[in-house]
Specification:
There is one protein chain. By secondary structure, the chain is an alpha/beta fold. The chain has helices at residues 9-20, 32-38, 60-70, 72-75, 87-99, 113-121, 134-137, 139-150, 162-181, 197-209, 225-232, 258-264, 273-287, 293-303, 326-332; strands at residues 28-30, 46-50, 80-83, 103-108, 125-129, 154-155, 186-192, 214-220, 267-271, 314-319. It has a six-stranded mixed beta sheet with strand order 1-2-10-7-8-9, sandwiched between helices. Helix 10 (197-209) packs parallel to helix 12. The longest helix has 20 residues, at 162-181.
Amino acid sequence: MAAMRIPTIADVQDAGPVVHARVSPSPLVRSYALEKELGLRGGRRIWLKDYGWTPSGSFKLLGALNWMARNLERVGPRPVAAHSSGNFASGIAFAGMQFGKRVIVVMPRTAPRVKFDRTRSFGAEIRTYDISEDHRTGERDRLIREITEAESAVEASPYNAPDVIAGNGVGGLEIARALRDEGRGVSHFFCPVSGGGLMAGHALAIADAFPDARIVGVEPEGADDFRRSLAAGTRVRLERPTSICDGLLSYDVGDVNWPILQRHVTSALALTDIATRQAMRWLYERHGLRTEPSGAIAVAALLSRQADLSGEGDVVVVLSGRNADEDAFRTWINVEPAVE
């Protein structure tokens, strides 16, 4: 059996030109409102890395673009297959459109409508399954097997592949470049964790640029397999993760991601869904930003005061995506505010 290849900062740097040939960097926005809310002193700043501005509405197309570019010869005339809660579906669909490849994705029937619409708009085919019973039936993986066998498709992992991790890390390079250009340092970096592909890629870039930064993973309380894994020193699997954060419901972190996460991630926090909803409301009212729950959860870690922000340097928070249906979004932000 071939040894598992763990991506490095060199892989992330190599992915930069590949990704930026197709998409421009996402904005890094200073949050004066969060600085005031948290009473940050000493000239420190808080920055929001907003991946909602990408064509797919989330960070997922970064890794998808790099994976597609690196696997063109292997894919050849065959289709690409992937499972996704919705954001990688639209990301790999966008990559397929860019490189002229057929894409088939497996998504939960209950995924937000906007994620179905974005995925179809880039030309992908969609198969659906019942996520509420998947822990028992294994329907998602069965569908992927059927597609790869019947169509000779090449499977793309949404988070557990070196090329996906490296592509995601390009966002971390963007953060580092922007802050270094302003002569800024980083004390804390907050990022959602699900399968770990977003955090692993960003951790490589942030740790390389800012070795003293505390890198903090954020998860829902009902899907905190990574927090438990850090405590146990080995990957922990949850049989039935639950949360409104549909993009953060992987059963465990990927084995390719795990060594990077263990090496670079300082700690992990778990947030209630109420705290995430309050963060969604706060971002909408203070910044006019519509985020999906998975996209807002890292801000929830700050607003809930769970995070220790002591130290010197700036704080960077990832907003991973904004693909929420209008009716669901309005329901979620109808909650008592976290702060007055």
